Amino acid sequence: MSYPFTLTLREVTPVTHDTRRFRFDRPEGFEFEAGQATHLAMDRAGWREQDRPFTMVSDPGAEELDFIIKIYPDHDGVTARMDDLTPGDQVLADDPEGAITDHGPGTFLAAGAGITPFIPILDQRAKRGEIAGCRLIFSNRSARDIILREHWEEMEGLDTVFPTDQPGDGMPDGPIDREFLDGRLVPEGHVYLCGPGGFVDAMRDAARAIGVPDERIVTEAGW
User: Fold this and answer.
1) Which pTM value belongs to this model?
2) Which end of the chain has fewer CB atoms within 10 angstroms, the N or the C?
3) How far is it, in rounded angstroms, from Cα 202 to Cα 179?
């Protein structure tokens, strides 16, 4: 497989105990909408044909490309090997694509690393003064897993709910289901879904059961 873009790593910074922000130089012609993703493969022997989708979390107008990636050290795959990258290393990238883009205000339902497409969407809306009518419901195993928690809590006008699977950590108890969502979806707003396949399926079913029409449910095709 050939890739149209080569990205050079500039820096890596920690976000949570198991997520990192990877900042790359942005090549000419790499254009995308907030929420879209690309496939990345490491430019190393034996790894150029093993790519995975990752969402750009930087503003589409920024000079650099940022990705927030959850590292799985027990997996022998791309997401584990990404943690071996150091500044100056290169990765190969495909043309950006994806159905999760800004369709208007609404409820953003994310689990774990599924928050990534919502980062640039909500950041753009906040920058434009259009965050009103947006609610983020972000599910995690525990409070320490919440990616950019302070960022979301400090985003003026954004309503946040952080359910977790760990009782007694001061967060609402998960998991998210129809009962949890009753009264929490933004009326007449869109419902954005991103996370593991099982989570997306369950959230779609719950949203439909509450009465959200399919045309107001935003997620990736095939989920």
Assistant:
1) 0.94
2) N
3) 12
